[in-house]
Amino acid sequence: MNIVKVLDAKGLACPMPIVKTKKAINEIGSGEVLEIHTTDKGAKNDLSAWAKSGGHELLKFEEENGILKFWIKKG
């Protein structure tokens, strides 16, 4: 994966992880990957739906020690 940016959204409640993800995805090029770290449990559904509706691809998701990690490829 060509991860070009890592977004730390830990400790932020909905809707801030989505707001920050949208801003960060606009700062990278098409085909590049954004890695997101959050502690908001709602982000699992929110980010999946947001990526799909925006034409982006959720490449991977994992949870580690209460931290949700997402890798989204910009469409």
Number of distinct helices: 2
- Helices and strands, in N-to-C order? EHEHEE
Sheet with the most strands: spatial strand order: 1-2-4-3
- Looking at this structure, what is the CATH superfamily? TusA-like domain
Keywords: Transferase
InterPro entries: TusA-like, TusA-like_sf
Protein name: Sulfurtransferase TusA family protein
Family: Belongs to the sulfur carrier protein TusA family.
Task: Describe it.
Belongs to the sulfur carrier protein TusA family. This is Sulfurtransferase TusA family protein. Keywords: Transferase. Residues 7-31 form the UPF0033 domain. The two termini are 14 Å apart. This protein has a single domain (3-73), classed as TusA-like domain (Translation Initiation Factor IF3, 2-Layer Sandwich), CATH 3.30.110.40. The chain has helices spanning 16-25, 43-53; strands at 3-9, 33-38, 57-64, 67-73. Strands 1-2-4-3 form a 4-stranded mixed sheet, with helices on one face. The model has no long low-confidence stretch (mean pLDDT 96). The radius of gyration is 11 Å and the shape is globular. Strand 3 and strand 4 form a beta hairpin. The protein has 75 residues and is α+β, with helices and mostly antiparallel strands.
